Amino acid sequence: MTNIRAFGLTTAAALLFCANAQAQEADPYLWLEEVSSERALDWVKQWNNRTTSQLDALPGIRQTTDRIREVVDSRARIPFVEKQGKYVYNFWKDAERPRGILRRTTLASYKTDAPQWEVVLDVDRLARDEKENWVWHGMDCLKPKAERCLFSLTRGGGDAHVVREFDTRALRFVAGGFSLPEAKSEVNWVSRDRLLVATDFGSGSLTSSGYPRIVKEWKRGTPLQAAKTVFEGQPGDISVSGYSDHYPGFNREFVLRYTSFFTNELHVRHKGKLDKLDKPNSASAFTFKDQLLIRLRGDWKVGDGTYAQGSLLSIDFAGFMAGKRNFHVLYEPDATRSLQAVTTTRSAILLTEMVNVRSQVHELRQQHGKWERRTVATPAFANVTLSSLDYLESDEYFVTLNDFLTPTSLHLGQVGNDERQQLKSQPAFFDTSGLKVEQHFAQARDGTRIPYFVVKRKDIRYDGSNPTLLYGYGGFEISMKPSYSGTLGRAWLDKGGVYVLSNIRGGGEFGPRWHEAALKEKRQVSYDDFITVAEDLIARKVTSPQHLGIMGGSLGGMLVSVAALQRPELFNAVVSQVPLADMKRYHLMLAGASWIDEYGDPDRTEEWAYISRYSPYHLLDKTRKYPPVFFTSSTRDDRVHPAHARKMVARMQEQGHQVLYWENMDGGHGGAVNGEQQARLNGMVYSFLWDRLK
């Protein structure tokens, strides 16, 4: 071993030196974690050239890419809006504006077929003027008038962003206004001259996950360094943030501390003091006027009663803070039903639930101290998404409807009324007349029924010859829902391909219990569920291993990698996008430490024992034959480190397996930032899959 004393290192530094040296010896591809080193980027460019030259030779790839580009840059897409003050705002990108423009109009104009848009910010022009690779990251406006907003911009599409104050009356950035340098900041308005800011304040101000751990109150006209500390979390926390709820007559301030990915503390700030809300740390809490709403991720025993996991409770906020616990149960799940989303308007709470992975909507209003419930009529098989028009001033709300075969439409709903006004509708990007959708259930090893959707031709032959793409995720309580995709339609379904969306455990389709069934040491359950769906497709002769491919992104990228490594005989093509792969070091890279609650801690021997059994980087075996894998990633992804994919590719190449790799130099965790990049990426992905599976 190297003589560490020769370097004059302290004991702590020496231990770190040894650990890094051992890691380097054990992992010859550690250098690929150096995101932008010359050596690593040269390696990326070589792979990009190799992959594109191979895939560009496939028949039809140019036509597929061009048809996708027509979809992503189509001016007939729905311009989704959010209301801020007296305007509705939309961020729009197309072939002429690849970085996009923020524009606005009135709601009355938006309802017409040809809204009169006013450009608020041209990101392409801003990028040229400032010689920066700006990508739009969102806006936060001071309610109710929204005359001042905080605009966020990223360099290349990552999560870290700069923040600048913008005057929506003068349509310009505020000279000397609030401004923050690039960081994973959380910044929220309290009043026109006060913000609650959580950002990188310098050494020691971030958590081990790379997010802020300190909240400060920042007053206009003072330097950020003079901001007053409101709260400090611990280095081992995930993140902290501060915000105000802005309800007239209440205007409460809060500090939210995420102690882990699935646990949090909520503190109310009053006269400079913080009071922690007495709720389970696994539960989330938020306000609706004078009410406190608590959403449970686990059973909660209060007094002589117990409230069930997945329930939504309501109580008078002041009464709760005074010690009362007389909750109203606004929602309680069962074996087939789960709460997916909560939306508020001026006078109502809207609940979106899933019943066997199909959407339903319920409206709740408080009358004379009691909650009245009404089910809102929606199409039977539609995927329904709600968002309030203006939760402080209006009882209108946006309703987005779609399914696999029905183009997305946007409607304006009204509390107390089932009639909706259709505002916009997306055109049909592919022919659905010969297609149908079915829902099936595969039986897992433990007897659990695993739902999945199949999109296929009506005249399909059950002879095992159909090119079939199986998609999955299975984590973080995120539900996979039916949705319309012009890209999928044109690049896959139009050619006769079958598409399958799995609803495996680890997701949120049946609430927290469905998620917890695949947490940490139970992670293999989600892989087994995914494999069970694949086996069911083969058993029903929808397809066969020769014609079955799998695809997933992020956690789903790891899912398909594991499935292919554990059961390679079932698949003939794999697309793993922005995946996790090295689960021994995932918690040391970028935001990885924030996911320990999901996967486990590899530094704990007993937890690495089960993590190692599904870590793709450690499962690779040079003696086994795997289906070809196409990995994609992004240099600018500052959430899931591109080294996960890079190292998998390097090791697979070393072992002689068939592998392709393409890394976008922009894009963040989404993998692409404009229409050209999206079309290029998806053109390669679907062409690779069709070539392998047809």
From TrEMBL:
Gene3D superfamilies associated with the record: alpha/beta hydrolase, Prolyl oligopeptidase, N-terminal domain
Keyword set, alphabetical order: Hydrolase, Protease, Serine protease, Signal
Pfam families given in the database record: Peptidase_S9, Peptidase_S9_N
GO MF annotations in UniProt: oligopeptidase activity; serine-type endopeptidase activity
Cited InterPro entries: AB_hydrolase_fold (IPR029058), Pept_S9A_N (IPR023302), Peptidase_S9_cat (IPR001375), Peptidase_S9A (IPR002470), Prolyl_oligopep/macrocyclase (IPR051167)
Ranges of residues in domain Peptidase S9A N-terminal: 23-425
Domain Peptidase S9 prolyl oligopeptidase catalytic positions: 491-692
This protein's GO CC annotations: cytosol
Swiss-Prot/TrEMBL GO biological process terms: proteolysis
Signal peptide range: 1-23
PANTHER family: PROLYL ENDOPEPTIDASE
Name of this chain's protein: Prolyl oligopeptidase family serine peptidase
Source species: Pseudoduganella guangdongensis
